[in-house]
Amino acid sequence: MKKGIGLGIDDFRKIIKEDCYYFDKTNWIEELLKDRTQIKLFTRPRRFGKTLNMSTLKYFFDVKNAEENRKLFKDLYIEKSEYFKEQGQYPVIFISLKDLKKNTWEECFFEIKELLRNLYNDFYHIRESLNESDLKEFDKIWLKEKEASYDNSLLNLTKYLYNYYKKEVVLLIDEYDNPLIVANQKKYYKDSINFFRNFFSMALKTNPYLKTAVLTGIVQVAKEGIFSGLNNVITYNILKDKFETFFGLSEEEVEEALKYFEMEYQIEEVKKWYDGYKFGEKEIYNPWSILNYLSNGKLQAYWVNTSDNALIYENLSVANMDVFNSLEKLFEGKEIKKEISPFFTFEELERYNGIWQLMVYNGYLKLNQKLEDDEYLLTIPNYEIQTFFKKGFIDKYLIGSNYFNPIMRTLLEGNIDEFGRMLEEIFLINTSFHDLKEESVYHTFLLGMLIWLRDKYEVKSNGERGQGRYDILLLPLDKKKPAFVFEFKVSKTIKGLESKAEEALNQIKEKQYDVGIKESGIDKIYRIGLAFKGKKVKIKYELND
Fold it and tell me: Quick one: which of 120, 132, 253, 408 has the fewest CB in 10 Å?
């Protein structure tokens, strides 16, 4: 009987107890122990196994239920390691901040107090060992009293545990940056950063009760923002070469899983859909998508539909022309060159390059090659992420999900007049595209739509053909289908739309942008001239068959 797929299970004990397929990452424990840095921060995209790995650490180190937990590691890598002697040797504090998603600081702080109360409740058994002073502080947190020292709560808990067990404490903080990302989005960042700066610093800075601390998150918030005064936090982000494969899956791990579930014949398609991430110098697969694929056997987008991408959407909605020009290159499958800092500041989101930082650290763009200093060549990593740009960028900011399929259908069926009418309707009802002035904006808009015909067409942009450069060319993979040549013009007036559309159509013919297409075996060619003025559209076309 084959093992099950533990979809959505991020608790190591449950994965093992329910006999789920487990990608053995316990060599991570050995590497962590070999690495002598006391405080480590790992930043990776969401759903790349951060919480499961932290849960694994909890069950490995925790002195509580040590013998029972020891059985969980039977036949895993760490059981055969000399470092297995560290199993069950330390009190462990495990706290996750991933659910702190509130609209106001007051609501967030209420949840923080509840989170800390539950954490203290987990260690209620040590309460009677506390002296009178510590007992008062413990109970203030446990009872969520207003005057409790919440800033000091983690530091104090490490002290209580150290005194009780006479052992140093392992501190695990999962998704440390989530409340800061939400706070920035909801406009209470200042209150949030003021609290968490003290909260983390108290627990991590020269804490004599600490054995080690491991933190995870998506981005490394700049030290001046969150780890002020802490020089002992070592960050292992997607730019670094150490610990690359401990989050996400290597190709060998994916191939082994496909073989186990008798699906290895699909490896090339799986690679196309879910590979392409790069941590350090290692190619990585998305584990959430792989597990979903193993579960139902269908190649489709899983990861991009699992989370609120509001921060990315928000930045796309106010993006300038530099961003849209770069997006156009990405849609074409090209690389773009951007500066990617190892640190992240929310202030960067106010500038044009902030969106690229956000997309890289969230896993939507791949660091293809480092150039110099902090400059990198970026690409879309795989087919699944391309669907994010369709659903996130096109559906939300360009046309909406109710319009994409119908307008594409009218084009492919040769109903060009209706295509032009629907295009104008899209402009009229869409309020996010408010800067419709330059031809390049319209070009990016149309290319962003047409790029999703790649399963049926070769989509080309600004290519040389005949005696000039066309705007967009669609060449059918099935030569029985028609080809489409587009040329765009922007009119200064509404009255000038007609003549501009004619000018665009004539340019296609005069400069012979469709030369050689019929010779390749394609019989039908639509020449389409489009003229724009704000949200008004005029279309002229000819069918050459």
Answer: 132
> CB neighbours of 172 closer than 8 A, spacing ≥ 6?
54, 57, 58, 92, 93, 94, 95, 213, 214, 215
- Do residues 376 and 369 touch, judged by C-beta distance below 8 A? yes
Three-state secondary structure string covering 492-520: CCCCCHHHHHHHHHHHHHHCCCCCCCHHH
Tokens representing 134 are 């510590």
| 217 phi, psi to nearest 5 deg | -175, -175
Average pLDDT of the chain, as a whole number? 88
User: What are the tens digits of pLDDT across the range 72-119?
Assistant: 999 999 999 999 999 999 999 999 999 999 999 999 999 999 999 999
What CA–CA distance (Å, rounded) separates 445 from 391? 14
Burial of 70 (0-12, 13-18, 19+ CB in 10 A): middle
Residue 400 has pLDDT above 60, yes or no: no
Give strand pairing partners of 461: 472
Q: Is 289 exposed, middle or buried (0-12, 13-18, 19+ CB in 10 A)?
A: buried
Residue 210's H or E segment, with its range, is strand 210-217
Closest CA to 56 of 65, 69, 39, 37: 69
Q: Which of 274, 278, 272, 307 is nearest to 291 (CA)?
A: 274
- Cα–Cα dist 327/319, whole Å: 10
pLDDT-based confidence at 434, cuts 50/70/90? very low
Q: Which two tokens stand for residue 120?
A: 């203290």
Q: How far apart are the first and last CA of the chain?
A: 60
Q: Are strands 92-96 and 169-174 parallel, antiparallel or unpaired?
A: parallel
What's the pLDDT score for residue 15? 97
CA distances from 177 to 141, 182, 192, 344, 364 (A): 23, 9, 11, 11, 18
Give DSSP secondary structure letters for 439-500. Answer: HHHHHHHHHHHHGGGTTTEEEEES-EETTEE-SEEEEESSTTSPEEEEEEEE-SSSTTHHHH
Phi-psi region of 141 (alpha: psi -120 to 50; beta: other; left: phi over 0): alpha
From the list 317, 320, 284, 318, the residue with the least C-alpha distance to 303 is 284
Which residues are paired to 473 by β-bridges? 460, 485
Residue 115 tokens read as 């989170």
Among 321, 541, 297, 525, which residue's Cα sits nearest to residue 419? 541
pTM, whole model, 2 decimals?
Answer: 0.80
Question: What span, in angstroms and rounded, lies between the C-alpha atoms of 284 and 376?
Answer: 18
Burial class (CB within 10 angstroms; exposed 0-12, middle 13-18, buried 19+) of 273: buried
- How many Å apart are CA 51 and CA 45, to the nearest integer? 12
Q: Burial of 283 by CB count in 10 Å (0-12 exposed, 13-18 middle, 19+ buried)?
A: middle
